[in-house]
Specification:
The complex is a heterodimer of chains A (about 350) and B (about 800). Chain A is an alpha+beta fold and about 350 residues long. Chain A has 12 helices and 9 strands. Classes of the chains: A alpha+beta (about 350), B alpha+beta (about 800).
Chain lengths: ~350, ~800
């Protein structure tokens, strides 16, 4: 009997080890451990044993049963594991296939430049002022020290609607309006972005509509050195810390003294190349100390208050910064152009 | 203004300063030097040669065989094609080995069988523009005066061993439209002296006023007129150096008389005119306004009709010049001219500008008058001119000048305090330093304690107020020497306004949703200006448009965006989504500024989603666009105030267009553009929307307030309702919401069925209703009570019943 049990154990463990799948293993379980299984069968012959041997045999039978059960369990784990592995193997995908696209757009390069400038100056305590694109002659010219008959305000250069109303030719009227609103009290610290219009035929470097962004600070004791310091911060932020700036005397009716700001040429590092026309410098913006007539007309006491103003063209900055070669690209909205500005360095 | 470095040296010592260095210094302290041109750049080996013999080339009609002495060794044979080459001439010879502009190397050659050892040059071949070359040499080689020494460097003889600084003058610096003005500027920059020309003229015993009488009727247009008389001039070529200086400045030489007037224009900035005295037709000069319809034939032989706004120089009756602009043909200096009148006058800028503009005649002279000449140089210029006429045209200068003078010349006197100078510039200059700067400028000053009073020379008409003086101090002190500071004083919080913040949010949202931002033109044509407008209004029209296509201001952005889609679609990008924010312009009548309203518009065409290898491809439809807008309104906290309502709009699909209402007011539309428009633009199915961004962003939104997370479960009931085809889902939803009471927290459509299994004219709409009470767990009974009310209401108000 004892031998028979050992035999059964060996036989069962052998079958378990070769079982190919869970079903076969289950069949083994039923056939060996079931109520009608061979172990039960063997135990039926226990009656013939002595009272002394009976518990021993019982223990042995249980041991055999446990061994088989344990073998089955272990095998089951293996088979289950294998089944999982097999399933996972079958689930393998090609990770090089393209992903499901997430739709993204992005903002226009001019918005990008304008917002960058806005944010820089907001950080320096400026607010963003906006004004009408269709403007009164007074705000566009007269309040900016360009009286009637001034050569710079030729009908040929502006889009007039009536004699007194025109499409603004610069964003400076926003400065005049803002100062007027302050009723002679400083400080005024604004940055004014917006669309402006001039009678130019559209070509690679001209556009009848373009953007401008201007800044204005009016307070007691605003100095030209403040203008220089402010523009230096701007230039380094926009074009890189390694840039040098240079102020050159210039002329604008609404500022005195007036200057133009150049930055050192990035391409040649100041040695002179075709981009900077051999000068080593690239003109970026116009600026100056607010003309006393402009302050007075807007209700500021020019004896007490001084101010500085600067203005630039986002198109020009974008063209320099990104190497865009034709101003018309900004208004054609070719998606192959627009898409390129979704990258943020 | 083109400034010859060599010429400038006559007035200012430039030793130790190269032309490039000078250009840098001038740019930094006042006037941008836009370029420095080296006149003899790329030219080597051109000498003065003597044509000893000339004969016809044996094998070519148009070629000459010349024997030329170049001053080095034996005379050489040169073949020359110029029609004017001849024996005895002194010419410019590019010898073998010479280099001409464009890296053109001269080699020994054989031309039609004859040897040629070099080339006889025209001025063009030496790098001079054709339009600047005197007529007699424009078609052939240049011929030097006979006394020119053979073997000399021809370019030196032509004064081409020079560099030209091109000044980009701002309108305020017209004082530098003259060599003397530039000399003052350069002297100030370098801290050196100015040497002025001192014309010494020997006069005859005859007196000018015996020969001519001057009368000015239009004193305001012409406050000062100076006439001088020079007799017995010999008209001929002017000296080579003078021609060279004119050419380098961009003026074509003519003859000595005309060249001298132009030379003075360059030197003094004072335009002059020379009349042939014997062709004047009278002994009088009368300056007056023209009569309307009066005609003058100008030097260019053009007949010009005048108005009373134009100023004329007349001989008492007939016009002889259009003042400050161009002389008349009748009194022009000719080769046989003997006696001349030199006119030096102060004409009012506006008067000259009017005439030059009306007649399209902008010249070196008119440009200077327009900007205002120095009243104190009018006489000096005339003196200098007659001196040169005596010297280079053999003229005899008559005693005195004949003048009509009503000009009041008062130099500007401007004061400024040292404190103000330092306050504006941010400097710490001493009075001594300031005085030194004005001394360099040769401005007279007077210091009284802290105040410096400056008497500004009339040549600097741009300086009238103290800020102008501050600029002079600043630029000569050097902006490079200014410190860099930041404004001190009260600090201001920098921020965007709420509106500006929200506008940025809208942009970022739309970009995140897949739309590209476009920026288009505000000016458009008549058809597009009003198409798709939200409000019917007359568009704002330009008085003088440049073209039909840019003649009116837009009332809507959509047509511009459709144009963008069309452009891209024609370039293989037929699936695209764009948006724009920008102003539209609503007229308020002629007198008022139009209302500018910021709009938001979008346009989507072609495939909205494309992921082909997984079989996903979805063209845009109405619900894509609506979803974008719903998401936007959710971001802005407006979801509960927004309603989409079926609508009709010109240019839009009649069944696929919605009006967008905000708190019951129409703020825009969304939908498919009309298929005929799609076809016109060659677009695939295209959806668009336009909203008044202003209305949307200015709508009041309750401040953000935290709502506690529910502690009790909600109960969801789904219902399928059978309703008439025409019943809108939104309408049913509205009824459900209203009837559901406060327990009904959320309703949404989850199914629509319009198939065969429905009775004709009916559809099935399934809604999911979520009931919830923040205070307790709802019972089935609570929900059933509310739910029954819902079913009752939809039946009663919309005839919709539960689907069986």
């Amino acid at each position: 009997m004892q031998e028979r049990l050992k035999e059964l154990q060996t036989e069962a463990l052998e079958k378990i080890s070769t079982a190919a799948d869970l079903k076969e293993l289950n069949d083994i379980r039923v056939s060996y451990l079931g109520k009608k299984g061979p172990i039960t069968e063997v135990l039926k012959g226990m009656g013939k044993l002595s009272a002394e041997e009976r518990p021993k045999m019982g223990a042995l039978a249980n041991e055999v049963r446990d061994r088989i059960a344990a073998g089955i369990e272990e095998k089951q784990k293996h088979l289950e594991e294998a089944a999982v592995q097999e399933k996972l193997a079958a689930e393998k995908i090609d990770v090089t296939l393209p992903g499901r696209p997430v739709k993204t757009g992005n903002h226009h390069p001019l918005t990008r430049i304008i917002e960058e400038i806005e944010d820089l100056f907001i950080g320096m305590g400026y607010t963003v002022a906006e004004g009408p694109e269709v403007e009164k002659d007074y705000y566009n010219f007269e309040a900016l020290n360009l009286p009637k008959g001034h050569p710079a305000r030729d009908m040929q250069d502006s889009f007039y609607i009536t004699e007194d109303i025109l499409l603004r030719t610069h964003t400076s009227p926003v400065q005049a309006r803002t100062m007027e609103k302050h009723e002679g009290k400083g400080p005024v610290k604004i940055i004014c972005p917006g669309k402006v219009y001039r009678r130019d035929n559209d070509d690679a470097t001209h556009s009848h509509q373009f953007m401008q962004i201007e800044g204005l600070v009016v307070d007691e004791n605003i100095r030209m050195t403040d203008l220089k310091g402010t523009l230096e911060i701007f230039a380094k932020k926009m074009f890189g810390d390694d840039r040098e700036i240079r102020l050159r005397p210039s002329f604008f009716p609404f500022t005195e003294p007036s200057v133009e700001m150049d930055i050192s040429c990035k391409i040649c590092g100041g040695k002179g190349c075709s981009v900077c026309k051999g000068t080593g410098w690239i003109e970026i913006l116009g600026a100056g100390m607010v003309h006393p007539n402009v302050l007075e007309m807007a209700g500021f006491d020019s004896k007490k208050y001084t101010g500085f103003a600067f203005g630039m063209g986002p198109e020009r900055i974008a063209m320099l910064k990104y190497g865009v070669d034709d101003i018309r690209h900004f208004y054609t909205n070719d998606v192959r152009f627009l898409k390129q500005f979704s990258i943020h360095e | 203004m083109f400034v010859s470095y060599k010429w400038l040296q006559e007035y200012v010592d430039l030793s130790g300063v190269t032309p490039a260095e000078l250009a840098g210094k001038i740019t930094k302290s006042g006037i941008e030097v836009e370029g420095v041109e080296v006149l003899n750049e790329g030219i080597k080996g051109v000498v003065v040669g003597h044509v000893l013999e000339r004969e016809q080339h044996p094998n070519a009609d148009k070629l000459n065989k010349c024997l030329v002495d170049t001053g080095a060794g034996e005379p050489v044979q040169i073949i020359c094609g110029a029609p004017n080459v001849d024996k005895g001439q002194k010419v410019a010879v590019a010898t073998v080995g010479a280099v001409l502009p464009g890296n053109f190397k001269i080699k020994r050659a054989k031309l039609r069988g004859e040897e040629s050892n070099g080339m006889i040059c025209s001025l063009q071949e030496l790098g001079i523009e054709s339009k600047l070359i005197a007529k007699e040499y424009s078609e052939g080689i240049y011929v030097f005066p006979n006394d020119t020494e053979v073997g000399q460097d021809a370019l030196e003889q032509l004064n081409r061993d020079d560099q030209i600084l091109e000044l980009g003058l701002t309108p305020n610096r017209s004082d530098c439209l003259s060599m003397l003005g530039v000399a003052y500027e350069v002297a100030a920059i370098l801290g050196r002296e100015v040497k002025l020309p001192e014309p010494l003229v020997e006069t005859t015993s005859e007196i000018a006023s015996d020969f001519i009488e001057v009368q000015v009727d239009a004193k305001e247009d012409n406050p000062l007129y100076v006439a001088k008389v020079v007799k017995n001039v010999k008209v001929g070529p002017s000296p080579v150096w003078m021609q060279a200086r004119l050419m380098a400045a961009g003026i074509r030489p003519h003859n000595n008389v005309v060249d001298i007037t132009n030379y003075i224009l360059l030197e003094y900035g004072q335009p002059l005119h020379a009349f042939d005295y014997d062709r004047l037709g009278s002994k009088q000069i009368l300056v007056r306004r023209a009569n309307d319809g009066e005609v003058i034939v100008t030097l260019d032989d053009a007949k010009r009709e005048l108005t009373s706004e134009h100023l004329l120089i007349t001989n008492g009756t007939e016009p002889i010049a259009l003042a400050g602009v161009m002389g008349g043909a009748n009194s022009e200096v000719q080769p046989d001219t003997k006696n001349v009148i030199i006119e030096s006058a102060y004409f009012k800028g506006a008067t000259v500008r009017k005439a030059s503009k009306d007649h399209g005649l902008r010249s070196e002279a008119s440009a200077r008058f327009e900007k205002g000449v120095d009243p104190n140089r009018v006489r000096a210029a005339a003196e200098r001119a007659v001196q040169l006429l005596a010297q280079y045209a053999g003229g005899e200068v008559l005693e005195g000048s004949v003048e009509a003078d009503a000009l009041q010349v008062e130099p500007a006197v401007v004061s400024v305090t040292l404190e103000k100078i330092n306050r504006v510039l941010g400097t710490e200059l001493t009075m001594k330093e300031v005085e030194a700067i004005f001394a360099r400028l040769q401005f007279e000053t007077n210091t009284d304690n802290d105040t410096i009073t400056v008497t500004v020379p009339t040549r600097r008409g741009d300086i009238t107020i103290e800020e102008d003086l501050i600029e002079e101090v600043g630029r000569l002190f050097g902006y490079d020497n200014l410190a860099s500071t930041l404004p001190v004083g009260s600090s201001t919080p920098g921020h965007l306004s709420q509106y500006q913040n929200k506008r940025r949010l809208v942009r970022r949202y739309l970009e995140g949703a897949g739309l590209y931002q476009a920026v288009t033109y505000s000016l458009t044509n008549e058809a597009k200006a009003t198409q798709y407008a939200l409000e019917e209004r007359k568009p704002v029209q330009l008085a003088m448009p440049m073209s039909e296509d840019r003649s009116l201001l837009r009332l809507s952005i959509v047509p511009q965006l459709l144009e963008v889609l069309k452009y891209n679609s024609a370039r293989q990008n037929d699936s695209l989504a764009v948006y724009e924010t920008g102003a539209v312009f609503l007229s308020n009548g002629e007198e008022e500024l139009p209302e500018e309203r910021e709009h938001l518009a979008g346009a989507v065409t072609g495939l909205w989603h494309s992921h082909p290898w997984q079989g996903e491809k979805k063209p845009v439809d109405f619900y894509v666009v609506k979803g974008i807008l719903e998401g936007l309104f959710e971001k802005l906290g407006l979801t509960d105030k927004i309603e989409f309502r079926q609508a009709q709009k010109d240019g839009m699909h009649p069944g696929r267009t919605a009006e967008v209402l905000l708190s019951g007011n129409s703020v825009g539309f969304a939908g498919q553009i009309h298929p005929t428009v799609e076809k016109e633009l060659d677009l695939k199915e295209t959806y668009t929307f336009e909203l008044s961004l202003k209305a949307v962003l200015e709508e009041e939104v309750s401040p953000l307030q935290y709502e506690s997370i529910p502690r009790f479960p909600s109960i969801t009931r789904d219902i399928a309702l059978v309703a008439d085809q025409g019943t809108a889902a939104g309408e049913l939803k509205g009824i459900i919401k209203e009837a559901g009471g406060k327990l009904l927290k959320d309703v949404h459509v989850f199914d629509l069925y319009e198939g065969e299994r429905m009775e004709p004219g009916k559809k099935s709409l399934a809604f999911s209703l979520k009931y919830f009470d923040p205070e307790r767990t709802l019972t089935d009974e609570d929900v059933t009570k509310a739910h029954d009310k819902v079913l009752e209401a939809v039946k009663e108000k919309a005839g919709a019943v539960l689907r069986g």
